[in-house]
């Protein structure tokens, strides 16, 4: 039984005979599947191998494409010589800029047209690792072998991959997520402050590095383009493909049945594997599968841009903040706009008399960056929460107390009320469990043998909300319900969570729910992105369920009801809606080798109502491990001379391994989002946000040395 259910009084009554309106009133919780720990519904399938990922689906007549990428960083393709390739065994064709289908260059992401998707449209090479051809053959090995025989020559041009806040090409970033903040007189407040911290913080390029490499299979069937692809939102991907290839959206069907992690890297419009697979199937009239190698994932799929941030904070002697001035720069590509919104937390986390934020984009010759694991907030919080720790240091104050003294009553920049702000509860409960009260706040005071020991903390938030989605529910004649929503499960357990949400909304047992997801034909739906997948899909399911229940009465079954949330979302009053957390860490530093080990990590989270404590905790722990990985290991390195990635694989790009991960505790304070029908916020990304700063602050506490550049490598500690 995949659903070990708690005893439910509701289960005794037949479905559809109740008049309860779905309600997330925390004082009167419905007896339901929500709030109950359940293992993943697809878990047995995953561990026994019956669940298929995008590259696993058997298919008649399947051909394989091998991606060829540019070996230079900027210039033009002089020639692609295919003569050696044409007669090779199994080769079906070579697609390059000379014969590829023409694309609609308006196609892009939310930020505008995205040239990262406009592959094989001309002879220009805009960055290293740019896909420049696809070799298609009967087998993957034949395609790979032929690709190696392709002779490509270039006319190289000078490139620039050197990025900094002071780069001459720096320009104001897009205000996609709202304008930069200017509240109060920052300069006057800084001048009047008892202490001022003015420091630079840097974070490198970081890759999504999901376990499953990107793969797409495309074929034409009955005048429709059929796609199985590894992505975070099949509906949005289908819309992008339709635009890109100038197709009627109804002609495109994208499925993403099981996805082995995304972390943002499968959320940007559509991936190169998909663009190339569609080109190949359209050109050759065969189903074509394109799967990226690990190294191609690093070189061709969007990454988090490097950031360079200057934070100035002024405070009174009692710890009251007078000014926060946060200037943030990040890399972009000329091919596409993007916003790494590093100043998000500076606008909302603390009260200050003056707040100024500035976001700067610096175009360099790289592939277009995009969201990765808590975009903006994660590198931004490293800067802000490190600077806050530096303020506490200069004031000789408990850094936890500094946070508590600067709790705002309304949004410090927006002036809007908070829907529910439970940061203080996270801070106090986290401190209690961690044993923070015994900490000597002076650095370099704890030793164990030759090891230096330190503790550190950070406060965080992450935006919560829902985006338009639609769901339909059918009451079947046998008492079961079919729930259809274009959601995707990127490994988080979305199927299990949404089954619980549907069961609660319908007042039935999860076993009575048949959930259909991961198919663009199921209608418009938001992606598993921005920590807004579950909130967006749950909203649609809950509303559809309420509508269905109101119609059930004497209706003849089967009965189907659909609901689109676009209108209800528009009626939400503007408010500051965020998840919150407090992160505590303990590290040891070996002064002889510079080795940093994280010994303990504790995160207390306020993430609204928790749908499934088992899965939510798992996501938060995973997020904290990614934060640890960011703090100590992850660093995409580019060689300025060649412009190429130096470490485009797991041999060179280090991520936290099991042996790096200590005991991690992630737990929840009671919370509830009044603006959401199910009372939920989001758990996708907040686990990552704040963790790097908590670790860097612990390293300072252990050693007395500030770590303002990530990752905290051995050579930076010594
Ligand atoms: Mo997430 S980085 O918003 O896919």
From TrEMBL:
Q: Does the keyword Lyase apply?
A: no
Q: Where is this region: Disordered?
A: 1-43
User: Which SUPFAM superfamilies does this one have?
Assistant: CO dehydrogenase molybdoprotein N-domain-like, Molybdenum cofactor-binding domain
The signal peptide, as residue positions, is: none
Record domain Aldehyde oxidase/xanthine dehydrogenase a/b hammerhead: where = 48-158
Q: Which residues cross the membrane?
A: none
Alphabetized, the UniProt keywords read:
Molybdenum, Oxidoreductase
Q: Does the keyword Oxidoreductase apply?
A: yes
Q: What is this protein called?
A: Xanthine dehydrogenase family protein molybdopterin-binding subunit
Question: Which organism encodes this protein?
Answer: Actinomadura alba
């Amino acid at each position: 039984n995949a659903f070990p259910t708690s005893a439910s009084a509701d289960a005794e009554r037949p479905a559809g005979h109740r008049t309860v309106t779905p309600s997330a009133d925390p004082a009167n919780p419905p007896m339901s599947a929500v709030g109950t720990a359940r293992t993943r519904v697809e878990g047995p399938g995953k561990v026994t191998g019956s669940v298929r990922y995008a590259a696993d689906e058997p298919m008649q007549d399947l051909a394989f494409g091998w991606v060829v990428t540019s070996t230079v960083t900027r210039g033009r393709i002089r020639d692609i010589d295919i003569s050696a390739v044409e007669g090779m065994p199994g080769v079906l064709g070579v697609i390059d800029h000379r014969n590829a289908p023409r694309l609609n260059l308006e196609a892009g992401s939310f930020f505008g047209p995205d040239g990262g998707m406009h592959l094989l449209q001309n002879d220009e090479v805009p960055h290293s690792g740019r896909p420049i051809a696809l070799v298609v053959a009967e087998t993957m090995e034949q395609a790979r072998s032929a690709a190696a025989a392709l002779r490509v020559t270039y006319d190289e041009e000078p490139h620039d991959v050197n990025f900094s806040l002071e780069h001459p090409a720096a320009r104001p970033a897009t205000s996609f997520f709202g304008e930069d903040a200017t509240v109060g007189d920052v300069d006057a407040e800084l001048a009047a402050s008892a202490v001022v911290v003015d420091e630079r913080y840097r974070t490198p390029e970081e890759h999504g590095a999901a376990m499953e490499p990107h793969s797409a299979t495309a074929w034409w069937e009955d005048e429709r383009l059929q796609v199985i692809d590894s992505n975070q939102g099949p509906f949005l991907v289908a819309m992008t493909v339709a635009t890109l290839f100038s197709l009627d959206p109804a002609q495109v069907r994208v499925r993403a049945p099981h996805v082995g992690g995304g972390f943002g890297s499968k959320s940007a419009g559509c991936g190169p594997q998909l663009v190339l697979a569609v080109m190949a199937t359209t050109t050759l009239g065969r189903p074509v599968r394109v799967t990226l190698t690990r190294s191609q994932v690093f070189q061709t799929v969007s990454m988090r841009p490097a950031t360079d941030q200057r934070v100035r904070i002024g405070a009174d002697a009692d710890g009251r903040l007078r000014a926060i001035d946060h200037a943030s720069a990040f890399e972009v590509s000329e091919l596409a706009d993007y916003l790494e919104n590093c100043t998000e937390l500076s606008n909302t986390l603390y009260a200050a008399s003056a707040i100024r934020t500035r976001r700067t984009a610096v175009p360099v010759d790289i592939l277009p960056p995009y969201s990765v694991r808590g975009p903006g907030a994660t590198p931004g919080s490293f800067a802000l929460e490190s600077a806050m720790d530096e303020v506490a240091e200069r004031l000789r104050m408990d850094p936890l107390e500094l946070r508590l003294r600067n709790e705002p009553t309304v949004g410090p920049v927006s002036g809007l009320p908070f829907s529910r702000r439970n940061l203080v509860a996270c801070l106090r409960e986290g401190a209690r469990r961690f044993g923070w009260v015994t900490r000597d706040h002076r650095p370099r005071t704890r030793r164990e043998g030759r090891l230096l020991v330190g503790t550190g903390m950070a406060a965080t938030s992450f935006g919560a909300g829902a985006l338009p989605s639609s769901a339909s529910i059918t009451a079947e004649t046998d008492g079961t319900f079919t729930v259809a929503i274009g959601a995707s499960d990127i490994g988080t357990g979305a199927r299990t969570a949404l089954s619980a949400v549907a069961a609660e909304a319908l007042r039935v047992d999860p076993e009575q729910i048949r959930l259909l997801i991961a198919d663009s034909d199921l209608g418009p739906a938001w992606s598993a992105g921005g920590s807004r997948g579950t909130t967006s899909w749950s909203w649609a399911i809950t509303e559809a369920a309420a509508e269905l229940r109101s119609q059930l009465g004497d209706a003849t079954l089967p009965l189907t009801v659909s609901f689109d949330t676009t209108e209800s979302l528009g009626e939400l009053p503007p408010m500051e809606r965020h998840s919150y957390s407090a992160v505590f860490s303990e590290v040891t530093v070996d002064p002889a080798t510079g080795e940093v080990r994280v010994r303990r990590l504790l995160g207390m989270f306020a993430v609204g109502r928790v749908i499934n404590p088992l899965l939510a905790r798992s996501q938060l722990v995973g997020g904290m491990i990614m934060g640890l990985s960011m703090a100590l290991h992850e660093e995409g390195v580019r060689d300025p001379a060649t412009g190429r990635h130096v470490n485009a694989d797991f041999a060179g790009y280090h991520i936290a391994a099991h042996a790096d991960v200590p005991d991690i505790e992630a737990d929840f304070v009671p919370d509830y989002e009044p603006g959401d029908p199910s009372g939920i916020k989001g758990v996708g990304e907040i686990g990552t946000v704040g963790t790097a700063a908590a670790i860097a602050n612990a390293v300072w506490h252990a050693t007395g040395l500030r770590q303002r550049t990530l990752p905290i490598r051995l050579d930076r500690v010594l």
